[in-house]
Amino acid sequence: MNTTQSPTATLLPADRRLFRIGGAGALAIGLLYIVIVVLYALAGAPPVGGEAWLAYLAGKSAIWWGIIGLSVLTNFLFVPVALALFVALRSISRTAMAIAVAFVGLFVALELAVNWTCYAALVMLSADYATATTDAQRATLIAAASFPSAVIASPLAIVYAIGTLSFAILLIGLVMRKGLFNRVTAWLGIATGLLGLAAVAGVGVAVILNALAATAWLLLVGYKLIRLASA
C-alpha cells in the first residue's frame, strides 16, 4: 500500500488561507510593479537636488501620487507574502526564513518611514512652489525640499529600497531549492537577490535587471502559493 503523503497533506486550514492571501498579494505586487514602471516612464527620470525636484514635479504630481500610493500598497502586501513563505518553507530552515521575514519587515518599515515619506514631501512642496508668488517663498520651499531630496539621493536610500528586500529574496531563494517551489522560482529568487546586491554596490544596469527579476519571481511565487492553498 502506498503511504506517501502530499507535502501539503498536513497543512492546517489557517495555513491554506494564508497561502491564498499571500499568493494573491504576490500576484498583486507583481502586477502593480508593472503599472509603477509605466508611471515612472511617463514621469521621466527624476533629478537630483531640491530646486530641480520642485521644477521637475510641475504638472507631474498626479503621476507621482500614483507611484507613491501604489508603492505604499505593495509594501503592505509584502507582509502576508513573507508570512506565507515562512509557513511554506519553515520546515526546511526556520532560521533562514525567520531572518528573511525580518529583512522583509525592515524593508517595509524603512520604505514607509523614509523613502516614500520623502517623495510625498517633495510632491507636496512642489504644489506650494507652483503657487508661490515671491522669491522669498520660493527660496523657503527650495530649502525645505533640500533635505528629502538629499535623503532620496543618498546611498542609504538604495539600501532601503533594494538591498534589504534583495537580501531577503536571496535567502528565500536558497531555501526554495529544497522546498515546495520549483528550481526556476528558486534560482530566479537567488538571481534577484544577487542583482539587488550588485545594484547596491553601484552597478547601474543591475537596478533594472533586479526590478524585472523581482517582478517575475513574485508572479511565480503568487501562482505557486495559490496552487498550494488548493492542493
SSE layout and pairing:
Elements: H1 13-43, H2 50-56, H3 61-89, H4 94-131, H5 135-153, H6 155-176, H7 183-200, H8 204-230
Helix pairs in contact: 1-3, 1-8, 2-4, 2-5, 3-4, 4-5, 4-6, 6-7, 7-8
Structure description:
It contains eight helices and no strands. Helices cover 83% and strands 0% of the residues. The protein starts with 12 loop residues before the first helix and ends with a helix. With 231 residues, it is mainly α. The relative contact order is 0.15. It is elongated. It has one domain.
For the sheet with most strands, the description reads: none
Integer-rounded radius of gyration? 20 Å
The portion of residues assigned to helices is: over 70%
The total of helices stands at 8
Unreliable stretches, pLDDT < 50, 5 or more residues? 1-6
Number of domains: 1
**Structural class by sheet pairing and helices:** mainly alpha
Shape: elongated
Order of helices and strands: HHHHHHHH
Average pLDDT works out at 92
Number of strands: 0
